[in-house]
Amino acid sequence: MLVSARVFRYCLIIAIVAMLVSIISKRSVPFGGSILKSSTVKSIRSFSYTSSSSNGGEGGDYSSWSSHGSSKSYSTSSSSSSFTNPNAQSTSSPPVTTSTASLNYDSALTTFSNYSVAVAYQPKDRKPSSNMFKKSNRSPALDSPSGEDNLFVSSQVSDGSIAVGVADGVGGWSEAGYDSSAISRELCSNMRKGFESAGNASTTPKSVLDNAFKEVLQSEAVEIGGTTACLGVFTPDLKLRVANLGDSWCGLFREYRLVKETNFQTHNFNTPYQLAKIPQHILRKAAMEGRRYIIDEPKLADEYSWDLQKGDIVMFATDGVTDNVVPKDIEIFLKDHLEDKKDAKLNDVAKKFVSEVVKVSKDGNFPSAFAQELSRLTGQKYLGGKEDDITVVLVKVV
């Protein structure tokens, strides 16, 4: 009996020690300065773990958020991916570029009377499918150098105004086997053409968006899809009007500080407002199954009007940027690469910025904005960048 009591005490002590070791091993590292990323460029800081929206604080295990899926949803139903395209084709990403291959702008760097405009983008890695029964031929529409994102930069119209913008094809349609790049590409093309043919300082970006989307609905180039859009009209008297629908973004930086920005429009987490073109037979099938697709209209876009000053920098970006880095990171980057650097080329800065965002999007330990929001919603700690197509248009007031 005495021996049994001793054995019991020893087992109890061992169990308590094991519990303590387990608790200690699960203590998390906060998102603060103790784990700042080392710079990849001498004397210039890369993006660091300084997110102002961090909820890092207390301990707990961290998980990768990737198990929740990263493509944006096109339906309010969790079963939205049940409809697939029988002719689905797999793709891999085009090379990194700032070329004019997307045809919706003329040059990676364009200088107008009052503005300099630079563009840069990189599609995410898309691994070919291992399904041997899928068709191997590629549709030309899937070869966009910016992936499912797109952008446009108009020519300067007669009164000195210009229009620029970005659009992000909703990736959920790609998972269903359709080309998610077609609608963003055609929308940007139509916005550019529409502004160049009839735009001026009094033209509102919402009207540009509305007219362009009407053309998309009639276009045979777009079979199906959804897209966000964020665009602006810059006038010769240094005024900027912006229209934003969805979770793409525009921010105004003055002396490298964010002073104005657009708000994200979402129905649910990772489900942005989106302009959508969906054939009637698919809508009927969804209705029979109790599902509903998201079909928003240009009139729902938020509108903004900002006064500009010489030296201001305006960034238009798809959520491949804002799902990974926060405004404070962007402020630091712009200051590091532009302040007191008279020889700095805006297109080089834009390309470097995209490159840095790509790096953190692939970093499994980076506290991305997306992972932080997922942590807040689920109560579980998540880390990791969010790989996505990344597209940026930078405009500097000169």
TrEMBL record:
Cofactor: Mn(2+); Mg(2+)
Protein's UniProt keywords contain Transferase: no
Compositionally biased tracts (Low complexity): 90-99
Family annotation (InterPro entries): PPM-type-like_dom_sf, PPM-type_phosphatase-like_dom, PPTC7
SUPFAM superfamilies: PP2C-like
Chain ranges of the PPM-type phosphatase domain: 129-397
Name assigned to this protein: Protein phosphatase
Listed SMART domains: PP2C_SIG, PP2Cc
Coiled-coil residues: none
Span list, region Disordered: 76-99, 125-150
Keywords: Hydrolase, Magnesium, Manganese, Membrane, Metal-binding, Protein phosphatase, Transmembrane, Transmembrane helix
EC number in record: 3.1.3.16
Transmembrane annotation, as ranges: 7-25
Homology family: Belongs to the PP2C family.
Enzyme class per UniProt: hydrolase
Reaction catalyzed: O-phospho-L-seryl-[protein] + H2O = L-seryl-[protein] + phosphate; O-phospho-L-threonyl-[protein] + H2O = L-threonyl-[protein] + phosphate
GO molecular function: metal ion binding; protein serine/threonine phosphatase activity
